[in-house]
Amino acid sequence: MEKRYKEILLTNEYGKLLEAKKKGIPAVPCLPVIYAENPITAGNEKIMEKEMDLSGYPYVLEQAEEVEEAYLEKIRCRLLGLPCEILQTKRCIVREICLDDVDKLYEIYADPSITLYMEGLYAKKEEEIAYTRDYIRYQYGIYDFGMWIIEDGQSGEVIGRAGLDLRPDREDAELGYMIRKNRQGQGLAYEVCTAILAYAKEELGFEKLYARTRKENLASVMLLKKLGFHPVCAQSETKEADNAQIEYYIALS
Fold first, then answer.
1. What is the pLDDT of residue 49?
2. Contacts of 10 (CB under 8 A, 6+ apart)
3. Residue 42 pLDDT > 90, yes or no?
4. By CB neighbour count within 10 A (0-12 exposed, 13-18 middle, 19+ buried), where does 51 fall?
5. Residue 160: left if φ>0, alpha if ψ -120 to 50, beta else—which one?
6. Beta-carbon neighbour count of residue 176 at 10 Å?
7. CATH fold of 85-251
8. Neighbours of 96 (CB within 10 A)
9. CB distance 149 to 161 below 8 Å
10. 139 Cβ contact list (under 8 Å, min separation 6)
11. What is the residue-wise DSSP string for 61-101?
């Protein structure tokens, strides 16, 4: 079995996988993998199959003929180091982060107002690049979601981040968002987060999401309420100190 999807090769022949590797062609093994369609002898085939090593392939497909094109496109992007597009809104494109975005994020985070209520980037850019590389590989690769980049749909300018992250104390994900200073106040966060909530329910199957913000961050508090979030504790907004975080939730079902 051999199939091409754009730049990548899908095959169940181990010999063709090795050949593609030598030529630098991204390839995906398809089960059951055999050494070749026409082995020299049955005995040799068994010996060769024992020596087959698929550990270096991040994706292995079962029933490859039934795999949807959207999933193949995601595999293609991951193998080629391209960011996968997650969704589009009226004015924005939400996509995965890539290493080229790091410099742009440092420009955005240079404004002190951005880190007033949230953590900043690593002080050393090389540490942020290493973190981003691991984030792409493990967060996106394992969970298929995470914090994403927001692009202006017309200019392609990086204007912020938004997405879903996991917390060790919660089964459900947490919504996060950030819009660069000169694009705030235009309804972009609401537009993007509304689309992400729909994506979380329809594509990822989440039934509930959480979000955290500080009481004095009035813009964030208003945004969460507009999106339909409710305080986890009904009295938390009045009892907590001004610098304490308030936790919100929204039921998506």
1. 55
2. 1, 2, 3, 4, 27, 28, 30, 61, 64
3. no
4. exposed
5. left
6. 19
7. Aminopeptidase (3.40.630)
8. 23
9. yes
10. 145, 146
11. EESGGG--HHHHHHHHHHHHTPPPEEEE-SSEEEE---TTH
Q: And the tokens for 171? A: 């089964």
Helix (H) or strand (E) holding 176: strand 174-179
Query: Does an H or E element contain 169, and which?
Result: none
Residue 187, Cβ neighbours under 10 Å: how many? 14
- As given in the structure block, the two tokens for residue 146 are 């995470």
SS3 percent helix, strand, coil of the chain, rounded to 5, is 35, 25, 40
**Whole-number Å distance between alpha carbons of 189 and 192:** 5
Q: Which residues contact 109 (CB under 8 A, 6 or more apart)?
A: 115, 120, 121
Comparing C-alpha atoms, which of 172, 222, 160, 167 is closest to residue 197? 172
Lookup: tokens for 150: 């927001």
Of all residues in the chain, the percent with pLDDT exceeding 90 is 68
CA distance 88 to 35: 43
**pTM for the predicted model, two decimal places:** 0.84
Residue 85: how many other CB atoms lie within 10 Å: 15
3 within 8 A of 10, measured Cβ to Cβ: yes
pLDDT for residue 32 is more than 90: no
Spans of all domains in the chain: 2-80, 85-251
Beta strands in the chain (DSSP E): 2-5, 8-13, 27-34, 61-62, 85-88, 92-95, 147-152, 158-165, 174-179, 208-214, 230-231, 245-251
Greatest distance between any 2 Cα atoms in the chain: 78
Decide if pLDDT at 47 tops 50: no
Beta-strand ranges (E) seen in 21-83 are 27-34, 61-62
Amino acid, single-letter form, for residue 247: E
> How many CB atoms lie under 10 A from the CB of residue 243?
9
